[in-house]
Amino acid sequence: MKLTNRDLVTIDDLSNPEIKGLFSLADEMADATSEQYGVCKGKIMASLFFEPSTRTRLSFEAAMHRLGGRVISAVDIGSTSLAKDESIADMARVVGAYADIIVIRHPWEGAARVVADYAGIPTINAGDGGHEHPTQTLCDLYTIRKERGTLRGLKIALWGDLKHGRTVHSLIYALARFGATILFCPGRGLELPEHVLKRLDTEYKGELRRYDNREQEPDSKLFPIDAVYMTPTSPHQLAMLPDISLRVELKEGVDALYVTRLQRERQAPASDQKELGKRYPVVDRRLLKGQGFEKTLVMHPLPRVDELACEVDSDPRSMYFKQAAYGMPVRMALLSLLLGTKEVALPEGHRSFAKKVQYPVYKRDSAVKCSNAKCVSNQATETKYIKPEFRVVSNKPVTLRCTYCDHELRPGYVASAEWHQGKLENKKYHRADSHWARKIKPENLIVFASEEEAQAKQFRPGHYSR
Amino acid sequence: MKLTNRDLVTIDDLSNPEIKGLFSLADEMADATSEQYGVCKGKIMASLFFEPSTRTRLSFEAAMHRLGGRVISAVDIGSTSLAKDESIADMARVVGAYADIIVIRHPWEGAARVVADYAGIPTINAGDGGHEHPTQTLCDLYTIRKERGTLRGLKIALWGDLKHGRTVHSLIYALARFGATILFCPGRGLELPEHVLKRLDTEYKGELRRYDNREQEPDSKLFPIDAVYMTPTSPHQLAMLPDISLRVELKEGVDALYVTRLQRERQAPASDQKELGKRYPVVDRRLLKGQGFEKTLVMHPLPRVDELACEVDSDPRSMYFKQAAYGMPVRMALLSLLLGTKEVALPEGHRSFAKKVQYPVYKRDSAVKCSNAKCVSNQATETKYIKPEFRVVSNKPVTLRCTYCDHELRPGYVASAEWHQGKLENKKYHRADSHWARKIKPENLIVFASEEEAQAKQFRPGHYSR
Amino acid sequence: MKLTNRDLVTIDDLSNPEIKGLFSLADEMADATSEQYGVCKGKIMASLFFEPSTRTRLSFEAAMHRLGGRVISAVDIGSTSLAKDESIADMARVVGAYADIIVIRHPWEGAARVVADYAGIPTINAGDGGHEHPTQTLCDLYTIRKERGTLRGLKIALWGDLKHGRTVHSLIYALARFGATILFCPGRGLELPEHVLKRLDTEYKGELRRYDNREQEPDSKLFPIDAVYMTPTSPHQLAMLPDISLRVELKEGVDALYVTRLQRERQAPASDQKELGKRYPVVDRRLLKGQGFEKTLVMHPLPRVDELACEVDSDPRSMYFKQAAYGMPVRMALLSLLLGTKEVALPEGHRSFAKKVQYPVYKRDSAVKCSNAKCVSNQATETKYIKPEFRVVSNKPVTLRCTYCDHELRPGYVASAEWHQGKLENKKYHRADSHWARKIKPENLIVFASEEEAQAKQFRPGHYSR
To answer: Which of A42, A137, A397, B311 could cross-link to A433 by cystine, CB 3.0-4.6 Å?
Structure first.
């Protein structure tokens, strides 16, 4: 298996067999770290961190050094030329001429995609705003696999802030790809957003069951499950599902409890934060005495604040510092594969559990823009280079997903490029949520941000335009 | 001599023979710098600077590179995850999984101790607030030894700000350990604090003699000595002492004049600074023409401001740039010893001049906290991990010294864990400065921050509680 | 050819043959980049950036890594000891003891000269305020030579902001040295300053012809040439000059169009910037369709903002990303030459086209100071070390050029050190712009900042003092 010159922008850039191949190389490197010095001799990694993250940056840099490679770093946006209104596309092309691989963290969602497109060398996304952080997901999966021996058929509980922090969403999709059963245990007001649940349903074809945990006593010893997701590859579990109860669910034992902290930095008003912080669920010794947790791996992407009590640190089930340490072999394996200085045998007999749905690309010019203000496609310096780009992920109602940041939007008005009998007087637009809209084939779809746009483009109001 | 996996948090972590062993390795490395490339091949040093210090950081990083090792750096607290309220204990554990050795500078006093306790790899303190900066002390000692040929029986004058900047206090204790005679020449209002003088007395058992230099004319050519300290290992000097005068003292010649700058950043109001700055004593060509300075090494830890005139730079007695340069072999030797890639023969026939006093540890739970607001044990993020810890350094009056930052405090009330005849009604507390308090054995000592605390713990006011 | 232990502070530190020798080494290194790993093994480069510049810094650091050398970096003035009022001369001496070569960027003009004077190791100026940026000039020249095959007899158009940004002025002088014909195409209000034009005239002895482009229509397709400069080594061109017109000039074809961005950061009021920005000339596809541009190299030092349209990026004439990439071999060659790990055969049969004029140094004490507030010689921390130093570049009127920053100033009053008949009553001063001043030999010249200074020095008003 070769990954030479590939990028890692989202976890979906790697197939399940590729992830497993990468993990077997990581195993090999972990067992003989000192022998890897020289694997990337003469190679240069550019470490471009436009947002603070000591942990991730030092992990990548140490991994490159362990491989005998070299590192050039730009750590702070204030110390870069970007202050002079340079586009990251230009920056990517210049750094691409100096280094052999780029690791980038940037506050704009989709920024790593733009860098990968322009740099001309392999690019790794080390976090693009709230969008993706695929090497964190790899470390999480690697920890579970390393400690459980497999990634198949596991039961993983996700705890805390499931609303913000889409890195947790990436993990959810990745777990679904490997056939996991996922228990969602959010803090109040921090439940998983509808669009993630919907995506689990439509793209990963799993079974979703919700629980009403508002009736649970606040001091109940019961584990506060909000919903359970099961992939379709676990048929006997599905059969059991109708009779399942919270207690039954837990009796089988949870393989891993993945704790997250309140994502303050992605949130709005300080007052709400305080309130959410107060009610934020804490994982402590008492909780881990509960039923089903006897062998549970306690995980956390770190840094933690108060949601994971220090008293748990010495518990043999605590994996979070090991999880951080596993970042080293995982990133070493990734760097050497993308740089082409290593290859591994593809694991046999594996296939993806969930087949990734390929949606049609919407390519027409339009005034429709991504609705995410943090999306790279909405930044003044970048619009010179990149145009909004979407995939049509649904037609009931018409829904576009931004190629850069994965945010979804619903345009107000639509038309079909194939108007009735080819007559121009039939060139009409309709409301996007009308039943008429569902009949347009994706390849013929035209979207409008407003009626004004439609009319300016010579379309007339159709029957379903109001 | 092996120092593998040891930490260097305070200069006291190294015995006198270990310091001399380290210096002989530094000599060896200074003589053949280019041959050291490869000594630390494949090793990674994490350079964590949470306070600005180009000089120290670049010196450490260059030393590691000269040894063929690698470096990962986090330079600015703003660019780290710590902004997210992470504890340095957590940070230490994570970085400990990436690197082979940590060099840390941090504004909290005692921070390096916490990092050393949690990192699991050797840790070097590159300055923890105003507390310690042991490699600076090593460079200072190495310079004197290199240029004078010995560390025994020297006469060292300390000049300038002896009040703030406890790195100078560390140097004083280290000099005392090597049997030096120390002349204190402070600026007005910048005299050595009482607790340092007391510690010289009680722990290093030397002889201290004070002079009243207020009577000196402001423009006197006389060197403004404030006090002289002599270690007990110089008996013939002690004998001379009663008749000594300033002039006699100087006639013998000063081996080194150690100049310090006004520690503005550790001080309070700007107005006072201005006033102190005006009266700050300047070392210039004229002063160095004085009696006793014919062969004196002029030293300074740098950076300097105005206290050391540029006109002195070309004088052959000026050592300060050489002193900075000696940082290279000293730090190379230290890194390779702690990493275990080098060992040296222990110098024979050497012993510590001053035996370090071991004080009993106060381990009981108590509301008593370190009185130093900058102490790591008082930081919100750290109290989850670490409890206040003290040593009982005196019982007249009862005095505790913080294990982290070395600040001393005197609790208000005390009791004995061995109450009279074991009767609970004898469970009484007393004022800590009462003569009764002196009778409590250190292992039985109980301290209280207040009468309220004592009473809450079921103690009743004793005879000496008012 | 050896350049061991030389500095590169201004482009004039290298002769034309040396530049060509450096370029032939760069060619060699570009053809076999991976074979250079080891050329600087064990050497340390200190990368000291007191102003933001990711591009230049990463380029230097990557170059050093490609050579197998090591790098220590200080990126932000806030994270250095300089905040403590240390002089850069002191800093240079300390870093000079840690590293083998220094690369420095600093906002003070002339700072690199001071560092070079005190560091004791080779020093490369990576930009000192608005003064010089010689490696940028080297990359520019290298790009032209690489793509055109020669540096002789080229026609280069400079576009945009020719007023600010003296790096463009450095390029102009360098082009003149290689015998180029230079077309100046400034934005309105951004014309080349008089002192540059004058210097081209007096030092490079070329022929200058100006055009009045105010009469051109704003939307004229005509290339807005403001002036043309020709070196004296192109005699047949000089002969043609009297009949030349803009159109004729362009018919011969432009070898390179060098685009610059508006130097906002060197300018004063924001309101003016906005106005200048609006009228700033843009290089786009339409302009490049013009006559004479068929084979023109489009160059830009980057970062760009809007003055160079993205639509041009894919044009085969666009050189700006290649130009950035050429920074790698050029800087690799430079580092290895200055470190003495490489030498090259001097190219034969080459000589400088323009002989550099050597002006006499003005060494007397005087109250005259450099008039440039950003000059290193005017900084409080540096005046302890360095005195103002000037060269006498003209005596009609008397003009001094600062040795550090190249700014010129005209003192108000002058005298001759050789007073008439040696009589003290003839010790008189005169106005510097009087015809009498022209008679003073440079070696006898005495300058005064004011009449007061002259009188304080016992000079009396002369006949031409009013």
So the answer is: A397
